[in-house]
Design goal:
Helix 4 crosses helix 7 and helix 4 packs across helix 8. The protein contains nine helices and six strands, in the order βαββαααβαααββαα. It starts with 5 loop residues before the first strand and ends in a 7-residue tail after the last helix. Strand 2 and strand 3 form a beta hairpin. 45% of the residues lie in helices and 7% in strands. The N terminus is likely disordered. The strands form two sheets. The chain has a three-stranded antiparallel beta sheet with strand order 1-3-2. Strands 4-6-5 form a three-stranded antiparallel beta sheet. The protein has 231 residues and is mainly alpha-helical. The longest helix is centred in the middle third of the chain and has 17 residues.
Length: 231
Amino acid sequence: YSSPRTLTLAATQYGGTSRYRDTKQLYETAGLIFQEDGIVWFTTLGLALKRFLPLLNSQNAILIARHAALLLAACQLRNPTDAGMKYDNSMHVFPFRFIWMAMMELDFKISSDELNRAVFHSKDLRTLYDSIRQIRLFRKSGDMADLGDETISGVSKDDRIIPLISLASFGWTLLTDKKDSPVRGYYCIRPQYLRLIEAAIQTPIRHRDFLSIRDYAAYLSDAACLPRDLV
C-alpha cells in the first residue's frame, strides 16, 4: 500500500451500519481499501482511482483499467480482511479472475443465473471448470436444473450480485451492463478490452496466505504495476 489516507467511518454517511459494512467488504474484496485498528485506508489503486475518477472518460479509461485488471485478477476471496477471513481454508478463489475466465470460455458473456447458480459455487480452479461445463449444458438444454441451486437467494439477491459484477467490470468499463448489452440478459466483455482481460487472466498466480492485512494490500499494490505518477 502507499501513503495511507483515511476514509470516513461514519456509518450514517452510508445509510446505516449494514450498508456501510456491505460496501466496505465489497471494496476490501476488490483491493481498493482495507481496515486496520478501526481506520479504513486506501490501497495504491484506491488512491489512484480517487485521483483519476474526476478525469475519467471513454478515451482515457484504458490508462487506469489496465492496472485495475491486473489487481482484480490477483484478488482472493479468502484473505486477511474482515470480509475475507470468514471463508474456509479450502476456498482458493480469485473472484474477478474466475468471472472473466468463465466469460472467456462462454462466448464472452454470462448471465446473473449462470453466475449465481454455477460460477459462485466454485471453490478452486477445478470446480470453476465444472461450473463452466454446467453452464454449457444449460445453454443447450434451457433447463435451470442443469445449473444447480442459487448461491445467493432472496428478494435482494441482485443487490449482492450486481455490485460484484460491477467491480469485475471496473465500473462497467471492461464489461457491459445488461441494459446496454448486445446480448439481452447477459453481461458481455467489451471487444476493445478483450485482450486486456485475456492478458490479466494469463498472468501467473497462486493462492497465498498472508500474515497481515498490510501484507495483502502491499501484494495487491505490486500486482497493479501502477506507475508513481498515477498515485
